[in-house]
Design a protein that fits this description.
The complex is a heterodimer of chains A (115) and B (113). Chain A is mainly beta and 115 residues long. Chain A contains 1 helix and 11 strands, in the order E-E-E-E-E-E-E-E-E-H-E-E. Helices cover 3% and strands 51% of the residues of chain A. In chain B, strand 5 and strand 6 form a beta hairpin. Classes of the chains: A mainly beta (115), B mainly beta (113). Chains A and B meet through strand 4, strand 5, strand 9, helix 1 and strand 10 of A and strand 3 and strand 4 of B.
């Protein structure tokens, strides 16, 4: 069964802390994505990566950075967490052929609370 | 990408067909219609996509009108496990590896016993 695994389902952090959200996929996918989901706003793309060590900004990259050192792993980093980054974070992956299949595979999400 | 409009919520009786509408009146000729769903506390799940012909898979059927300005996702025999938020998305094929699907607010489908 294909799988995208996010390291933590629930996290509570304090303002100013550095936060790492990890995502691992076992499908040998080239593309990986980080979204955040907030009530009333839907899913918004933060960053994506189409290859190892490559990254592209999405719609809301401010306050975030990413790392893709290995193909299967894509990390989202909050350098200095703020309360407005309290959200559900979703990781997704897709093959390079996804342009034709339309299928993104999502993890179960990481709910981050920043106090 | 074209904007989509979906009802905020719908109810369906268990065992009956669930028909979820989506309007995409500004869709262009090379934009596909995608459907995803999100069950509570899980990540979104791909259901189906199509361009102009009707499509069917093991999960659902997608009916696209001839003018392509609207579509309907059909779950033929809804079960309680189909209760979820359903997202209709319009996207260019071959958008590159960006994969920037724009998820709107979707339709919350409640399947009732």
């Amino acid at each position: 069964d294909v799988k995208v695994t996010q390291s933590s389902r629930y996290l509570v952090k304090r303002t100013g802390e550095k936060v790492f959200l990890e995502c691992v996929q076992d499908m040998d996918h080239e593309n990986m994505f980080w979204y955040r989901q907030d009530p009333g706003l839907g899913l918004r793309l933060i960053y994506f990566s189409y290859d190892v060590k490559m990254k592209e900004k999405g719609d809301i990259p401010e306050g975030y950075s990413v790392s893709r050192e290995k193909k299967e792993r894509f990390s989202l980093i909050l350098e200095s967490a703020s309360t407005n980054q309290t959200s559900m974070y979703l990781c997704a992956s897709s093959s390079r052929r996804w342009e034709n299949t339309g299928e993104l595979f999502f993890g179960e999400g990481s709910r981050l609370t920043v106090l | 990408d074209a904007k989509t409009t979906q009802p905020t919520s719908m109810d369906c009786a268990e065992g009956r067909a669930a028909n979820l509408p989506c309007n995409h009146s500004t869709i262009s000729g090379n934009e596909y219609v995608y459907w995803y769903r999100q069950i509570h506390s899980q990540g979104p799940q791909y259901i189906i996509h199509g361009l102009k012909n009707n499509e069917t898979n093991e999960m659902a059927s997608l009916i696209i009108t001839e003018d392509r300005k609207s579509s309907t996702l059909i779950l033929p025999h809804a079960t309680l496990r189909d209760t979820a938020v359903y997202y209709c998305i319009v996207r260019l094929e071959g958008y590159g590896s960006q994969g920037n699907l724009i998820f709107g607010k979707g339709t919350k489908l409640s399947v009732k016993p």
